[in-house]
Amino acid sequence: MTTSQHSRTTSRTAVQKAALAVGAVFLLVGLLGFVPGITAQYDQLAFAGHHSGALLLGLFQVSVLHNVVHLLFGVAGIMLARSASGARSYLLVGGIIYLVLWIYGLVIDQESAGNFVPLNAADNWLHLLLGVGMIALALVLGKKHTARV
Questions:
Q1: Pick the residue with more confidence: 100 or 113?
Q2: Per-residue pLDDT for 146 more than 70?
Q3: Cα(111)–Cα(93) distance, rounded to whole angstroms?
Q4: Residues 137 and 15 sit within 8 Å (Cβ to Cβ)
Q5: Domain boundaries defined on the chain
Protein backbone atom coordinates (compact mmCIF):
# COMPACT_ATOMS: atom_id res chain seq x y z
CA MET A 1 0.00 0.00 0.00
CA THR A 2 1.44 3.38 -0.95
CA THR A 3 1.52 6.33 1.42
CA SER A 4 -1.29 8.09 -0.47
CA GLN A 5 -3.47 4.95 -0.34
CA HIS A 6 -2.78 4.58 3.36
CA SER A 7 -3.66 8.21 4.12
CA ARG A 8 -6.91 7.86 2.14
CA THR A 9 -7.99 4.92 4.25
CA THR A 10 -6.96 6.25 7.66
CA SER A 11 -7.86 9.94 7.52
CA ARG A 12 -10.86 11.59 5.97
CA THR A 13 -11.22 15.17 4.91
CA ALA A 14 -13.90 17.32 6.50
CA VAL A 15 -16.09 17.03 3.40
CA GLN A 16 -15.81 13.23 3.53
CA LYS A 17 -16.79 13.21 7.20
CA ALA A 18 -19.75 15.45 6.45
CA ALA A 19 -20.95 13.24 3.58
CA LEU A 20 -20.51 10.15 5.74
CA ALA A 21 -22.53 11.73 8.55
CA VAL A 22 -25.29 12.90 6.21
CA GLY A 23 -25.41 9.49 4.56
CA ALA A 24 -25.60 7.74 7.94
CA VAL A 25 -28.45 10.01 9.04
CA PHE A 26 -30.39 9.29 5.85
CA LEU A 27 -29.82 5.58 6.34
CA LEU A 28 -31.07 5.82 9.91
CA VAL A 29 -34.12 7.88 8.88
CA GLY A 30 -34.94 5.35 6.17
CA LEU A 31 -34.81 2.52 8.71
CA LEU A 32 -36.81 4.43 11.33
CA GLY A 33 -39.56 5.01 8.77
CA PHE A 34 -40.28 1.28 9.02
CA VAL A 35 -40.42 1.18 12.84
CA PRO A 36 -43.89 1.30 14.39
CA GLY A 37 -44.01 3.77 17.26
CA ILE A 38 -41.28 5.96 15.82
CA THR A 39 -43.48 6.20 12.76
CA ALA A 40 -46.95 7.18 13.99
CA GLN A 41 -50.00 5.73 12.26
CA TYR A 42 -47.77 2.96 10.94
CA ASP A 43 -50.83 0.95 9.93
CA GLN A 44 -51.50 3.65 7.31
CA LEU A 45 -48.09 3.24 5.66
CA ALA A 46 -48.74 2.88 1.92
CA PHE A 47 -46.25 2.03 -0.80
CA ALA A 48 -46.52 5.50 -2.35
CA GLY A 49 -48.93 8.37 -2.78
CA HIS A 50 -50.48 11.15 -0.78
CA HIS A 51 -52.86 8.75 0.97
CA SER A 52 -50.05 7.28 3.09
CA GLY A 53 -50.94 8.47 6.56
CA ALA A 54 -47.76 7.31 8.30
CA LEU A 55 -45.81 10.07 10.02
CA LEU A 56 -42.14 9.70 10.96
CA LEU A 57 -41.71 11.16 14.44
CA GLY A 58 -45.41 12.08 14.20
CA LEU A 59 -44.52 14.93 11.83
CA PHE A 60 -43.05 13.92 8.46
CA GLN A 61 -45.33 12.06 6.04
CA VAL A 62 -43.65 8.90 4.76
CA SER A 63 -44.41 5.93 2.56
CA VAL A 64 -42.51 2.78 1.68
CA LEU A 65 -41.15 4.59 -1.40
CA HIS A 66 -40.12 7.60 0.69
CA ASN A 67 -38.29 5.35 3.16
CA VAL A 68 -36.55 3.40 0.39
CA VAL A 69 -35.38 6.68 -1.19
CA HIS A 70 -33.91 7.70 2.18
CA LEU A 71 -32.15 4.33 2.46
CA LEU A 72 -30.69 4.58 -1.05
CA PHE A 73 -29.65 8.19 -0.50
CA GLY A 74 -27.93 7.14 2.72
CA VAL A 75 -26.05 4.29 1.04
CA ALA A 76 -24.97 6.70 -1.73
CA GLY A 77 -23.59 9.13 0.84
CA ILE A 78 -21.64 6.44 2.65
CA MET A 79 -20.22 5.07 -0.61
CA LEU A 80 -19.35 8.48 -2.07
CA ALA A 81 -17.68 9.56 1.18
CA ARG A 82 -14.76 7.30 0.24
CA SER A 83 -13.23 10.17 -1.74
CA ALA A 84 -13.26 13.91 -1.20
CA SER A 85 -14.52 14.60 -4.72
CA GLY A 86 -17.27 11.99 -4.35
CA ALA A 87 -18.27 13.42 -0.99
CA ARG A 88 -18.39 16.97 -2.35
CA SER A 89 -20.45 15.84 -5.33
CA TYR A 90 -22.86 13.92 -3.08
CA LEU A 91 -23.44 16.96 -0.90
CA LEU A 92 -23.71 19.41 -3.78
CA VAL A 93 -25.92 17.34 -6.09
CA GLY A 94 -27.94 16.00 -3.15
CA GLY A 95 -28.49 19.54 -1.93
CA ILE A 96 -29.69 20.61 -5.36
CA ILE A 97 -32.03 17.61 -5.49
CA TYR A 98 -33.48 18.57 -2.12
CA LEU A 99 -34.02 22.18 -3.23
CA VAL A 100 -35.83 20.93 -6.34
CA LEU A 101 -37.89 18.62 -4.12
CA TRP A 102 -38.70 21.58 -1.86
CA ILE A 103 -39.96 23.61 -4.81
CA TYR A 104 -41.89 20.59 -6.09
CA GLY A 105 -43.50 20.16 -2.68
CA LEU A 106 -44.54 23.82 -2.65
CA VAL A 107 -46.20 23.78 -6.07
CA ILE A 108 -47.80 20.32 -6.10
CA ASP A 109 -51.31 19.89 -4.74
CA GLN A 110 -50.67 17.71 -1.69
CA GLU A 111 -53.95 15.86 -2.27
CA SER A 112 -53.20 15.04 -5.92
CA ALA A 113 -51.72 11.93 -7.52
CA GLY A 114 -48.66 14.08 -8.31
CA ASN A 115 -47.75 13.93 -4.62
CA PHE A 116 -46.49 10.39 -5.06
CA VAL A 117 -43.56 10.50 -2.61
CA PRO A 118 -45.62 11.77 -0.36
CA LEU A 119 -44.77 15.22 0.99
CA ASN A 120 -46.38 17.43 3.60
CA ALA A 121 -45.54 20.94 4.85
CA ALA A 122 -43.04 19.61 7.43
CA ASP A 123 -41.26 17.63 4.69
CA ASN A 124 -41.12 20.70 2.48
CA TRP A 125 -39.41 22.88 5.05
CA LEU A 126 -37.04 20.10 6.04
CA HIS A 127 -36.10 19.71 2.35
CA LEU A 128 -35.26 23.42 2.17
CA LEU A 129 -33.00 23.13 5.22
CA LEU A 130 -31.37 19.96 3.89
CA GLY A 131 -30.78 21.48 0.47
CA VAL A 132 -29.22 24.66 1.80
CA GLY A 133 -27.21 22.79 4.43
CA MET A 134 -25.83 20.16 2.07
CA ILE A 135 -24.85 22.76 -0.54
CA ALA A 136 -23.18 24.87 2.16
CA LEU A 137 -21.22 21.86 3.42
CA ALA A 138 -20.12 21.00 -0.12
CA LEU A 139 -19.00 24.53 -0.89
CA VAL A 140 -17.34 25.37 2.42
CA LEU A 141 -15.74 22.03 3.21
CA GLY A 142 -15.05 21.13 -0.41
CA LYS A 143 -13.31 24.47 -0.88
CA LYS A 144 -10.97 23.74 2.03
CA HIS A 145 -10.06 20.39 0.47
CA THR A 146 -9.47 21.93 -2.96
CA ALA A 147 -7.25 24.63 -1.43
CA ARG A 148 -5.08 21.98 0.28
CA VAL A 149 -4.51 19.87 -2.81
A1: 100
A2: no
A3: 28
A4: yes
A5: 13-148
